[in-house]
């Protein structure tokens, strides 16, 4: 099994992401301005502070590895296609949650190798919680200073326990409801940002159907955590794992995050999705 990130490097990365989170927290606790990007999505000084802090961290630790950030501007596919290994970051996922001050936003750093997110850190500064994982080496969570290994859970028997389905606060609500209505007994939980994937990774939720657009930087770090915890992030149509950097567009297909694959939800998915 390849060790993509040494344990020493891992410690420095986690510390660096948590330091960037401290900068974000200072802005979160004060008054900040909100700009609107060309695609109509919001941007705050915290997105940019985190972007610069994470770029500085990665350039210091791995000067030879290129970085693609949500805030770095477009890098042509012809260039990205040459990258065997690169960092893919979303400096602040859940900007609307940040603006609404509900704490459900994250800093996201993924290492992508041959299109597969093999290592990822997801940090939620307000929750004082960090999830990380590396392919083949397990997944972990630090919450309030306490570290523990995490793992996905098996889908429970719905006769005795409802399946927990996590969904976005803001996107794809109608598709989400249609999907959940086809499932056995379930309870729904709303959450912002990549925390949704981490809830599946840690076994607090069973499924996260994302039947709405996202970009690769929204999911790569948390996909690494989910897979290291024994789960999967699957294209909702092909049921193949999501891959990065395969085409000009950085948009993901609709996807499903699951713990262990199970024919019960696969059947529901086939019925719930438009042909
Ligand atoms: N039309 C669209 N195209 C691409 N991504 C979209 C999108 N609408 C929402 N998203 C992504 O969904 C993320 C938020 O999802 P959720 O509300 O479920 O947490 C946003 O992250 P950012 O906050 O980083 O912009 C954004 O990237
Ligand atoms: Mg995002």
Protein architecture, described:
Substrate binds at residues 70, 92-95, 218. Its EC number is 3.1.3.7. It is a peripheral membrane protein. Keywords: Cell inner membrane, Cell membrane, Hydrolase, Magnesium, Membrane, Metal-binding. It is found in: Cell inner membrane. The chain folds into two domains: 7-150, Fructose-1,6-Bisphosphatase, subunit A, domain 1 (Fructose-1,6-Bisphosphatase, Chain A, domain 1), CATH 3.30.540; 163-272, D-Maltodextrin-Binding Protein, domain 2 (3-Layer(aba) Sandwich), CATH 3.40.190. The N and C termini lie far apart (39 Å). It is 32% helix and 28% strand. The strands form four sheets. The chain has a seven-stranded mixed sheet with strand order 3-4-5-6-7-8-9, sandwiched between helices. Strands 12-14-13 form a three-stranded antiparallel sheet, with helices on one face. The protein contains eight helices and 14 strands. It has helices at 7-28, 45-61, 77-80, 95-100, 173-181, 195-201, 216-228, 263-272, and strands spanning 34-36, 42-44, 67-69, 85-93, 106-113, 116-124, 129-134, 138-143, 146-150, 163-168, 186-191, 207-210, 232-235, 255-258. The model has no long low-confidence stretch (mean pLDDT 96). It is α+β, with helices and mostly antiparallel strands. It binds adenosine-3'-5'-diphosphate (A3P) and magnesium ion. Adenosine-3'-5'-diphosphate binds next to β4.
């Amino acid at each position: 099994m390849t060790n993509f990130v040494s344990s020493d490097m891992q410690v420095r990365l986690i510390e660096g992401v948590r330091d960037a989170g401290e900068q974000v927290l200072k802005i979160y606790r004060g008054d900040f301005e909100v700009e609107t990007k060309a695609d109509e999505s919001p941007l705050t000084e915290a997105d940019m502070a985190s972007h610069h802090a994470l770029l500085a961290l990665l350039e210091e630790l791995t000067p030879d590895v290129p970085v693609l950030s949500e805030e770095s501007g477009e890098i042509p596919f012809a260039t990205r296609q040459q990258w065997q290994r690169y960092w893919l970051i979303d400096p602040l996922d859940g900007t609307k949650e940040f603006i609404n001050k509900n704490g459900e936003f994250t800093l996201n750093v993924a290492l992508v190798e041959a299109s597969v997110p093999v290592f990822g850190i997801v940090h939620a500064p307000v929750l004082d919680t960090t999830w990380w994982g590396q392919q083949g080496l397990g997944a972990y969570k630090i919450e309030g200073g306490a570290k523990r290994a995490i793992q996905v859970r098996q889908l429970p028997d719905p006769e005795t326990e409802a399946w927990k389905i996590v969904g976005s606060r803001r996107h794809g609500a109608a598709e989400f409801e249609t999907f959940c209505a086809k499932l056995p007994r379930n309870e729904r939980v709303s959450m912002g940002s990549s925390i949704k994937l981490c809830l599946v990774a840690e076994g607090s939720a069973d499924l996260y159907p994302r039947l709405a657009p996202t970009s690769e930087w929204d999911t790569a770090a948390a996909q690494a955590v989910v897979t290291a915890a024994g789960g999967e992030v699957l294209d909702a149509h092909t049921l193949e794992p999501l891959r990065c950097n395969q085409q000009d567009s950085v948009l993901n297909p609709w996807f499903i995050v699951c713990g262990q694959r199970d024919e019960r939800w696969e059947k529901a998915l086939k019925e719930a999705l438009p042909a």
